[in-house]
């Protein structure tokens, strides 16, 4: 039986584990976190997400977790609406959809779907990968060593597999000039309600606060600001000090968010980066998801691409019959890249002004952004915008044959 090691049990890693197991592979997932990782904001179930989850037989479960959404609204310090974009705008194909679930729930559904052919090793990662041509010897942090026919780096934008086999992060990382902190806020009796709205509050100096619906009694909170570099990931105090300095004078719910961030179990802070790797495969090692092509959260497509990439990689391995003839793995990896790269490249092309609109520099820029959000909903521009949103990949292209339609063995 062919053996695969997937490093990173996130969206891409756990989806691939599911498909490979169904194709008869023996799968090990090495996840650095001590348990399945919760956290993250909402994931759009349109387009690729829906198609791949349907193929995996998990769409109904995902639908049961939908978070009620009413739309996006850009607000002032006092909560006055500068612009609104309800979910009904653009016939449901706009910025926020009524088909969104929390990343936490999607990750849990994928993780729980794994059968007995998938072995998760939590608190584990790789220290070395030695590609011997017909197999890869992986040395783990725990000290164990094992051989695999295939190693997949699904370990996110700061991938260790990429560092070990493809070179240092600085070769591939393209910062977009913004950073983002996010966490789940447990509502208190005096917490202002969001009532299903994704609220965005911007202040001059490229800073913004966001609050959106989460599980009942919770809100998903974000703080966006200008930065290319951040304090080290393990230095939480330095991270909170940076947020305190950046948002001290900001108003709206800044003080509440800064206090809550310190107690949130899923607090995370990272830069908005893209990852550009010229070739994703090297012998029997391949990158998948954010480690290969992170398009940044600003694309809104990170999870859709991770799911799609996992389905395409599984399909390429299936087509090459790599599960029974592991000698074909390198050929399958090349075929996967040929299929997947155009999609990833397209997703990385952010619409003009996307970064500036997320965090305008000036008060005028903030007002202009709100005007744009109102104007694009005018009857004249609506059809044009509908087509533009569809082209971002949220809506499935009915003319395309994808991994979920060819050579399918999935549920
Ligand atoms: C907890 C969390 C919250 C997130 N929240 C958001 C969000 O709110 N908005 C958004 O746009 N994107 C968010 N993301 C990123 C989003 O999930 C990805 O952009 C997208 O789903 C692509 O999936 P991926 O599997 O490539 O990466 P990820 O989903 O990031 O998964 C990578 C996995 O690899 C693990 N890992 C990292 N390093 C190692 C290592 N050295 N060894 C072993 N395992 C390792 C991580 O713990 C993680 O489980 C979040 C990611 C995580 C992990």
Can you walk through the features of this model?
The structure is a single chain. It is built from 13 helices and 18 strands. By secondary structure, it is an alpha/beta fold. The structure holds flavin-adenine dinucleotide (FAD). The site of flavin-adenine dinucleotide has 29 residues, from helix 1, strand 2 and helix 9. Residues 7-13, 30-33, 37, 39-41, 103, 125, 154-156, 160, 182, 268, 289-290, 297, 302-303, 306 line the site of flavin-adenine dinucleotide.
Largest sheet: 7 strands, mixed
Total number of helical segments? 13
Bound molecule kinds, no repeats: flavin-adenine dinucleotide
The residue ranges in which pLDDT falls below 50 over 5 or more consecutive positions are: 395-402, 404-411
Could you tell me the strand content as a percent range? 15-25%
* Residues in helices, as a percent range: 25-40%
End-to-end separation in angstroms reads: 21 Å
Query: Averaging pLDDT over every residue, what do you get?
Result: 92
Q: Tell me the total number of β-strands.
A: 18
Structural class: alpha/beta
Q: Give the overall shape, derived from the CA principal axes.
A: globular
